[in-house]
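Lecture notes, unit on binding sites. The following record was shown on slide 14. It pairs a sequence with 3,4-dihydroxyphenylalanine.
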Amino acid sequence: MSDFEKFKDELKNKLIKAKDSKELDVIRSEIFSKNGLINSEFKKLGSLSPEEKKKVASKINTAKQELTTLLNEKVSNLQSNEIDERVKKEKNDVTLPEKDFKIGKIHPVSQVIDEISSIFSEIGFSVEEGPDVESEYYNFTALNTPENHPAKDMHDTFYIEENMKTLLRTHTSPVQVRTMLKGKPPFKIVAPGRTYRSDSDQTHTPMFHQLEGLHIDKNITMGHLKGCLNYFIKEFFELDQIKMRFRPSHFPFTEPSAEVDIGYRIENNKIIIGEGDKWLEILGCGMVHPNVLKNSKVDPNKYQGFAFGIGIDRLAMLKYGINDLRSFFECDYRWLNYYGFDPLDVPTNYRGLSK
Ligand code: DAH
């Protein structure tokens, strides 16, 4: 047996016996490095006759192939063994408490949604939800907003399909109709959620949040609406007295319609809610239009009621002194750490909403 053959068999044996990837690295270099078995043998070819050169070269190539195959097999075997070993050793008990426990923060929008839902639940409203991807029918038509109505332009709608039948809801009002179609009157619900319009500046973002309110029963009047909103605003801003005014407005789905402003003043660059002679619009409302009730299979001769739509982000900005709406959605951890809330402090009316 030639020296080459002997050395080759020796390396094969070493490969078979290798126990870890470190050993394999050493053997790999003994075979394939510049001065390893294969290259040293190729270097000797120069001194051989052409006939012999052919024979020996083919022998070296066969050996090279054999060793490569064996090495690759060994690498993959050892790798899977090593993984098995690690998995055995690194078994984690997921039921153990976290060692380095960090509490996350609740986003001000989530906090305000919880606060508002809690305030309305105190006076008998339950919480409903509707889809973000909505049909043109629920978003406009069922809400008494006919084809080609100018209100559709006001909404800068994001349409999802070219036939303009599917869209991202421009307001939470379609949840009114969906809720009424699902059940029987009376209805007393709030519906918080995401809404979308093609708009972006310091006080507008393409995605924002609204909360819809709906109260339908026999003999519900505008007086109930005023009482309800007055209670809500006082509770929300945690004040005994507030200034509030109803300004006549127009929405296709309410008749009469109003916008509600609250009084405020500026002191040392800070906004003080509840007093002063400046007015800030915070919501739209009105008595639900008979056509909306009809579209929702509710008899307008027997039932009536009010609805309102509140801009949640704006209320969060006002209550917590945040002045750029866009910062809400930038996912900046430092911002959230500063403006966010403790997850264990769930807002409730009786314990205090934000303290
Ligand atoms: N959907 C209206 C908007 O986004 C807000 C609104 C106004 C909702 C009056 C209502 C309402 O329920 O009665 O501008």
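Take-home: The pocket of 3,4-dihydroxyphenylalanine is lined by residues 171, 173, 212, 251, 254, 284-286, 307-309 (CB under 6 Å).
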